[in-house]
């Protein structure tokens, strides 16, 4: 299956209000830094937590793009309007797009 993918240059800044960001990284990665307002469902929990993924256009992210590519392909098969972020959170961070972290440490991608 072809995975719908977008480069960061194709993602508006700021993000459109009607766009959901789904972060499929593990909890420790999420805690270190994520996109504000994103929905966090680790890839391994996605089938059991599918009801937490809102309907509508969704940008799926992980660290580099591999896990989010898997999630995007699977969600597309389930009928979701999804696109994978090429380069993932590493590209997001490199472009100095805004992130937040859990706790007091500055946000970073781990």
Protein described:
It comes from Nocardioides plantarum. Residues 15-101 form the Rhodanese domain. This is Rhodanese-like domain-containing protein. InterPro entries: GlpE_sulfurtransferase (IPR050229), Rhodanese-like_dom (IPR001763), Rhodanese-like_dom_sf (IPR036873). This protein has 110 residues and is α/β, with parallel strands linked by helices. It has one domain (5-94): Rhodanese-like domain (Oxidized Rhodanese, domain 1, 3-Layer(aba) Sandwich). 23% of the residues lie in helices and 15% in strands. It is built from three helices and five strands. It has a five-stranded parallel β-sheet, covered by helices on one side. Helix 1 links the parallel strand 2 and strand 3. The chain starts with a strand and ends in a 16-residue tail after the last helix. The mean pLDDT is 96.
Q: Could you give a short description of this structure?
A:
This protein has 110 residues and is of the alpha/beta class. The chain is 23% helix and 15% strand.
Keywords for this entry:
110 residues; alpha/beta; five-stranded parallel sheet; 5 strands; 23% helix; Rhodanese-like domain-containing protein
Question: Helices, strands, pairings?
Answer:
Layout: E1 5-6, E2 20-23, H1 27-32, E3 39-40, E4 58-61, H2 66-77, E5 82-85, H3 88-94
Parallel strand pairs: 1-5, 2-3, 2-4, 4-5
Pfam families: Rhodanese
Protein name: Rhodanese-like domain-containing protein
Organism: Nocardioides plantarum
Strand order of the largest sheet: 1-5-4-2-3
- In CATH terms, the superfamily is Rhodanese-like domain
Helical content band: 10-25%
Order of helices and strands: EEHEEHEH
Work out the strand percent: 5-15%
CATH topology category name: Oxidized Rhodanese, domain 1
| Secondary-structure class | alpha/beta
CATH class division: Alpha Beta
Task: Identify the CATH architecture.
Answer: 3-Layer(aba) Sandwich
- Kindly state the number of beta strands: 5
Shape: globular
Annotation field: number of helices: 3
For the termini, the CA-CA separation is 29 Å
Low-confidence stretches: none
Q: Into how many domains do the coordinates divide?
A: 1
**Mean pLDDT over the residues:** 96
How many strands, what sense, and barrel or not for the largest sheet?
Answer: 5 strands, parallel
């Amino acid at each position: 299956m072809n995975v719908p993918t977008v480069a960061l240059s194709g993602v508006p800044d700021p993000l459109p209000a009607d766009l959901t960001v789904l972060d499929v990284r593990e909890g420790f990665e999420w805690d270190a830094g994520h996109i504000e307002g994103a929905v966090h469902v680790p890839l391994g929990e996605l089938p059991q937590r599918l009801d937490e993924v809102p309907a509508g256009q969704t940008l799926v992210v992980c660290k580099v793009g591999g896990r989010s590519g898997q999630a995007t392909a699977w969600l597309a098969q389930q009928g979701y309007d999804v696109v994978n972020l090429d380069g993932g959170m590493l590209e997001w961070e490199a472009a100095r797009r805004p992130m937040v972290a859990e706790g007091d440490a500055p946000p970073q991608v781990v």
